[in-house]
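Illustration 12: Fe-S cluster assembly scaffold SufA.
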Amino acid sequence: MSAPSVMNVSPAAAERVRGLLAKSEPGVGLRVSLEKSGCAGVAYRMALTEPEPGDEVIDFDGGRVIVDSKAVLYLLGTTMDVKTTQFESSFVFENPNQTSACGCGESVELKEADPSSLAPTA
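Figure caption equivalent — predicted structure in token form:
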């Protein structure tokens, strides 16, 4: 049995990541990190870059998501998806570790996940 991925990447998010990486150098991925921000505590930040030591890398056909090593315990069990409206398309995170969010939607409050609560996958 192997350990589950830190995050799940929905098919829509995987397609969007593939599009972002289409003209990138090999080894580059979409890095997801957390940054102190807003009134609730932290905000998700993303950048195209190569993994750093200790990061978790989620590779899939034609794409790569990199989870910052300092964010892993806050993102365990999260699903990365894409929300599309008439005027915009953006990544969204369904995070079971989120305890609150600010009213403006700029930041969220997260608690550390309990790694033992995730069941291993076959």
